[in-house]
Amino acid sequence: MGNIELRLFRYFVALCEERSFSRAAERLAISGPTLTHQIQKLERELGARLLDKATRKVRLTEAGSRFLESARDVIHRADEAELTARKAARGEVGKLEVGFLISVAYSGLVQRMISGFQADHPAIDITLHQQSTARQMSMILSSELDVGFARLPKQYPTGLSGILIDRAPVILAIPKSHPLARKRGEVDPKTLAHETFVSTSVTYDLAFRRHVEAIASLGGFVPKVGKRADDLTTVLTYVSAGYGIAVISEDMENCHDPNIVFKRLASSHVPEVAYSFLFRTGETAPACKAFIDAMRSQAMKGDTAKRKN
Asked: Which of 62, 86, 187, 236 is 20 to 30 A from residue 78's alpha carbon, by CA?
């Protein structure tokens, strides 16, 4: 049955449903003799008689009845395969591997931008992977990830493009037991000269390490870093345990750790964290292209809303 043309299955099913060669031929837009010839060809290829030739009516043999069930199943699976291929070509089905930063997740940005896409493309499966910006860029270029939500790099490497999607000022994460946590109002960077900081490791994103240095520059001192961690969740865990102060994006305030107090900085030059949606330049995969278009549209809407405000 593997060498039988799909159209012969369709001819046979149409004949069985219409119970008439003339009506089936009309439905199939072919002539009656052509249909008769094609059914005979099908029987020869199967090596089995499908129709009872002892009557002028279209009556199935036992083999014909059994074959009809399989023929309908073959047609159904072929139609499903065709539909799936067409949907995939239009970017309506598929699978996406998406990278993200924990700070972007706390901001609600990932959830907000993905939820609308999911509503419009329910057949596209999205799998999220928490990774640093540098790791996301590497994994997207090697096709381990399709796209990512990361910090805006100083320069996109060859083969990678991005869309600015958000900005957030940095704030201080202070242990609840620290004297600064009990003071009201914003914190003057100059008062941080003798504090111990918790920062990200050298292998993690450079942005937060630079933010510590930027705050130190505003206060006119050299920062003392007591602990480093490979991710911001661990950084905040150190802060919660009293190891020092961290400079993080405002979005991380949503972590709601009861042992951490978040404070704004008293400065007109507070650094910002800029977030970017990363993707391969010249992406051709339909599902990925649909996602990129949706993220670009979301970013434009967000930018328009900010300008109105």
From this structure: 62
